[in-house]
Amino acid sequence: MKPLLSCKESASLLLRANDVPLSMVQKARVRLHLAICGACTNFSKQVKFMGKAMGPWRGYRDEHDGPA
């Protein structure tokens, strides 16, 4: 396993973290990448913002859609 993630790998893990918990190793690798990559740091902030913005909608959808 290579120690540094590419931007593509980092973005994939940042998006996946919204749905499933990342392993300790994955978290550490993402943190290391974010420490050296400004573009991915900005992307991480955008993903967090979108997750917060979508939170109320997800709750509304789950309440009103009923069982699938």
Label this structure with key terms.
68 residues, 75% helix
Walk me through the structure.
With 68 residues, the protein is mostly helical. It has one domain. The protein is built from three helices and no strands. The longest helix has 28 residues.
Q: Rounded to an integer, what's the Rg over CA atoms?
A: 15 Å
Which term fits the overall shape? elongated
Detail the poorly predicted runs. none
Largest sheet: none
Helix count equals 3
Query: How many extended strands?
Result: 0
β-strand percent reads: under 5%
Task: Please give the alpha-carbon distance between the first and last residues.
Answer: 40 Å
Q: Assign a percent range to the helix content.
A: over 70%
Helix/strand/pairing category: mainly alpha
Integer average pLDDT: 88
The helix/strand series, from N terminus to C terminus, equals: HHH
Domain module count: 1
